[in-house]
């Protein structure tokens, strides 16, 4: 049994759930347990669940915060506002923390993010969610994590799952080359473009990927929009007909993610429409 599978033992039950003042929000739920966890894993491998106030059979979005894989937190006001806004629109939002570089190194943060997705697939039905409508998303570094989980099947396979268990992948300004933090961990310049096993673009020709909505900003950080355009072009060239690109006008790298919290935001509307239209194959 791998260490990841041992961590998966937690998936059958909640452990030490703390409720926020709002009963529709569950906070600080461990998504990894076991004697082998480091103190840093115990500190960071927690998630919050924002539930719609009404209804059953709702879709769920696992939303990973950004921060370059070196920073960020599920408790940041901007992250909370995105989760609260989507929950008000009838979507459950699961917001995990994950270990950060340099205290953790590749692929630890991807493995953590995958464990949080596995937790969601195993547990969201207990709260009224439809397990065939679980989507993986995130902004910037969070978008990178969503892409790696949904495109490189070996991460989910450690939990007995596969990308087809996901209803869709929704990266928001995610890096599609090997993440620059991963490069820096390896002593490679941030601006030395690499596309190895740690790059989502490496898997652009994989068949039967979940449906994908790729979002980026018209005024995104240097080369980020171009990377996203390139990923979609490669996927379409490889015959993937279930990938869509939407460049959000009048947005920069930060606002394209943060403004999803706002009703009427075009990225938010695109996400909700995409979630309404798709279910997992399973």
Structural features, described:
- The chain has 282 residues and is α/β, with parallel strands linked by helices.
- It has one domain: Alpha/Beta hydrolase fold, catalytic domain (Rossmann fold), CATH 3.40.50.
- It has ten helices and nine strands.
- A nine-stranded mixed sheet has the order 1-2-3-5-4-6-7-8-9, with helices on both faces.
- The chain is globular, with a radius of gyration of 17 Å.
Précis, in short:
With 282 residues, the chain is an alpha/beta fold. The protein has one domain: Alpha/Beta hydrolase fold, catalytic domain (Rossmann fold, 3-Layer(aba) Sandwich), CATH 3.40.50. The chain has 10 helices and 9 strands.
What order do the helices and strands follow? HEEHEEHEHEHHEHEHEHH
Please give the domain count. 1
The helix content, as a percent range, equals 25-40%
CATH topology: Rossmann fold
CATH C-level name: Alpha Beta
Mean pLDDT: 92
- CATH architecture, please? 3-Layer(aba) Sandwich
- Helical stretch tally: 10
Q: Keywords, please?
A:
282 residues, alpha/beta, Rossmann fold, nine-stranded mixed beta sheet, 32% helix
Could you outline the blueprint of secondary structure elements for this entry?
Elements: H1 3-7, E1 18-19, E2 25-30, H2 39-44, E3 46-50, E4 58-64, H3 77-88, E5 92-96, H4 108-123, E6 129-139, H5 141-151, H6 154-157, E7 168-172, H7 180-185, E8 212-219, H8 224-237, E9 243-252, H9 255-258, H10 266-277
Parallel strand pairs: 4-5, 4-6, 6-7, 7-8, 8-9
Antiparallel strand pairs: 1-2, 2-3, 3-5
Helix pairs in contact: 4-5
């Amino acid at each position: 049994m791998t260490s990841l599978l041992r961590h998966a033992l937690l998936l059958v039950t909640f452990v030490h759930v703390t409720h926020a003042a709002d009963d529709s929000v569950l906070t600080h739920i461990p998504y990894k347990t076991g004697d082998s966890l480091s103190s840093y894993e115990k500190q960071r491998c927690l998630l919050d669940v924002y539930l719609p106030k009404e209804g059953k059979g709702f879709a769920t979005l696992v939303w990973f915060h950004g921060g370059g894989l070196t920073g960020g937190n599920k408790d940041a006001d901007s992250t909370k506002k995105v989760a609260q806004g989507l929950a008000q629109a009838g979507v459950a939002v699961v917001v995990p923390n994950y270990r950060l570089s340099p205290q953790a190194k590749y692929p630890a943060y991807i493995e953590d993010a995958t464990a949080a997705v596995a937790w969601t697939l195993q547990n969201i039905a207990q709260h009224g969610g439809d397990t065939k409508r679980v989507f993986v998303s995130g902004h910037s570094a969070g978008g990178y994590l969503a892409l790696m989980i949904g495109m490189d099947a070996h991460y989910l396979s450690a939990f007995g799952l596969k990308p087809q268990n996901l209803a869709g992948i929704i990266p928001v300004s995610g890096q599609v080359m090997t993440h620059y933090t991963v490069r820096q961990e390896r002593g490679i310049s941030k601006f030395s473009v690499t596309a190895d096993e740690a790059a989502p673009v490496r898997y652009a020709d994989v068949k039967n990927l979940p449906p994908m909505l790729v979002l980026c900003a018209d005024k995104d950080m240097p080369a980020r929009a171009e990377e996203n355009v390139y990923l979609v072009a490669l996927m379409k060239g490889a015959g993937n007909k279930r990938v869509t690109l939407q460049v959000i006008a009048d947005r920069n790298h930060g606002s394209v993610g943060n403004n999803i919290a706002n009703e009427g935001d075009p990225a938010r509307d695109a996400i909700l429409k995409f979630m309404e239209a798709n279910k997992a194959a399973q």
